[in-house]
Predict the structure.
Amino acid sequence: MWSAAKQYWRVLTRPSVHFSLGFLTFGGFVAGIMFWGGFNTALEITNTETFCVGCHEMRENVFQELKSTIHYTNRSGVRASCPDCHVPHDWTNKIARKIQASSEVWGKIFGTIDTREKFLAKRRELAEREWARLKANDSLECRNCHGFDYMDFTRQSPRAANAHGTFLASAEKTCIDCHKGIAHELPDMKGVPGW
Amino acid sequence: MLKFPFVIALTTIAFAAVAADEPIATLRGLDPLAEQGPAPPMAKVSNEDLRRARNYPEQPPTIPHKIRGYQIDLNANKCLSCHSRRATAESQAPMVSITHFMNRDGQFLASVSPRRYFCTLCHVTQQVIEPLVGNEFVDIDSILSDQDSGKKN
């Protein structure tokens, strides 16, 4: 075992005998592009709504609920798809979230929420996870589209302008504090602050 | 002598003929019964956030804002997240009336009674729309003041 490792180390540290420096340099460069491009492409494929609703757990439950909300259908036709809200947009956090998502792959394989009943039983836990995530990052995924600096309070209803002008402006509250259940049905809200 | 009634009869017949040609427009419009006419555009929900006067004291107050997507079910009641007793200090929304805490025996419960839980059974939004039919409702204050002024006169 140890001797095998030593032998590999020797091969790796010794100069190449059969391949030219040019081949190794350019070959490595091209292979690097292909690996990185392939990795990113695969990552982006998992970052589409088509991918998300490919599983019946998402398609039959949360996606159906989204369809009647303003984030799916509205006057101007601008809409949010699953990853817009559920996956961070900048690279480091996206990768962190994707690594976390391996537990969701586990859930898919072992059918953690493969029936409606199982899903409903687990909904509070799943929702709380998302609330905690959005609370921790100051509702970053909301703010990717909804910039406070660009809100025209004169175009909001008086109570909306009032709430945004006080609680949001003072950073006392963040979007998710008041807008829970904006895109999906709520679980049993017993004990949730404000409900 | 005969000419005058004859003219009246003639005009009556002509008028009847014209009336028969024009179908009577009802609330459902001029479309034949078997056909479905185009639907009128959907009206916008009034969202001015100003309390409206009640037409009689027992009237459930109408909702002066949009409630699109408000969830009211066993799991959650979106209305109560502002109108519940505890939420009103923060939301400055009117608290649900104390009558909503009563059970059918008149006992006050700790929070909204299950029979009063589903807000939209009584409280509704209003739309920016012309009424389809007229309404001659007069509230009690107007009747009383009319009576008073009648006595004085």
